[in-house]
Structures are given as structure tokens and as C-alpha cells.
Specification:
Blueprint lengths: L2 H16 L12 H11 L3 H19 L5 H16 L7 H26 L7 H10 L1 H28 L10
């Protein structure tokens, strides 16, 4: 394991995680970006999968858990999987596309969860449609947040790797 790389990545992710606790507009948080970034950059897939979950759990201790928490966490596992697909071929277009896909995935999974386990909407197709429509305003913040934080994390990481070559991934022989 490249210890300086792991420590730098972890520090960057922890700094981004702290932003979830700072005042922010609804759904404008870096956790999905952390999941995507972690999947794309951490050489240890378990660490990449655990990172957004630990970030959420630590901040949820302060902010509180909800009935649909499992769906939120599941969406971050899936978004980390999108990050795995970016490994070794992460062009700007691919990163942006994965970020948009992650926002859509988060919207689809978490709102399905709200409909399934919450009591706000009837358990009918009309109720499901109403749930998704009601969440559209939150989707835009999620999308903008993901694009912003993904650009920030990948941008900082790209600059750091240029400045300190020890942070580059070690290729298997």
C-alpha cells in the first residue's frame, strides 16, 4: 500500500465529510462525490466502499438517522460502484457523466425508499409517482452538489498528484 497516497486521500475525504455538518442548502453535500471519488481513486475497494458509509454514519450520529437511512447508504454503495468503473480511464467527460448518473441513482433509490418505508405517500403507482415528483426540487441541488464536489475532489487530487508524485497509484506489475 502507498501510505502517503492513502493518507492524502483519506484526509481529502474527511475534509469533505466535515462539510456535511456545516450549514448548507438541502441536499448540497459532498457524500456522493466522496463515494464516486473513493471508488475511482482508492486502491482498496473495501476502503472505497466503507468511506462514504463511515462518513455518513459519523455525521448521522450528530444529524440523526431516518427511516430511509438504509436506502441512502445503499445509494452510496452503488455510486462507489460507478467510481470503480472510472479507474484507469477517468476523462473529464466520464467523470461528469458518472457524477450525473450518481445523482440520478441517488434520486431513484432514496425516493423509492421514502415511498416504501415512509408514511407520506400511498403504496400505489400514483403514490410512487407523487413521491418522485415531490422530490424534483431536491434533485437539482443533489446534481449541482455532486458536480461541484466531484470537480473539487478530482481537481484537487489531480493537482496534488502532479505536485507530489509519491501520491500516484502504484501499478501492479
Amino acid at each position: 500500500m502507498n501510505k502517503p497516497r492513502f493518507l492524502a486521500l483519506t484526509s481529502l475525504v474527511l475534509a469533505a465529510t466535515a462539510l456535511r455538518l456545516a450549514p448548507h442548502p438541502p441536499n448540497f453535500v459532498p457524500i456522493a462525490a466522496i463515494a464516486l471519488f473513493g471508488g475511482a481513486t482508492f486502491s482498496d475497494r473495501r476502503a472505497a466502499l466503507l468511506l462514504p458509509l463511515i462518513a455518513m454514519a459519523l455525521s448521522d450520529v450528530v444529524l440523526g438517522f431516518s427511516i430511509s437511512t438504509i436506502f441512502v447508504y445503499a445509494s452510496f454503495v452503488l455510486i462507489t460502484g460507478l467510481g470503480f468503473m472510472l479507474r484507469d480511464r477517468s476523462s473529464l467527460g466520464q467523470i461528469a457523466s458518472a457524477s450525473v448518473a450518481g445523482a440520478v441513482l441517488f434520486y431513484a433509490v432514496t425516493n423509492l425508499g421514502v415511498w416504501l418505508v415512509g408514511g407520506l405517500y400511498p403504496k400505489t403507482l400514483a403514490g410512487l409517482a407523487t413521491c418522485y415528483v415531490a422530490a424534483i426540487p431536491f434533485f437539482w441541488n443533489t446534481l449541482l452538489s455532486d458536480l461541484f464536489y466531484v470537480a473539487l475532489l478530482f481537481g484537487i487530487w489531480s493537482l496534488a498528484r502532479r505536485r507530489w508524485p509519491v501520491l500516484a497509484a502504484v501499478k501492479a506489475g
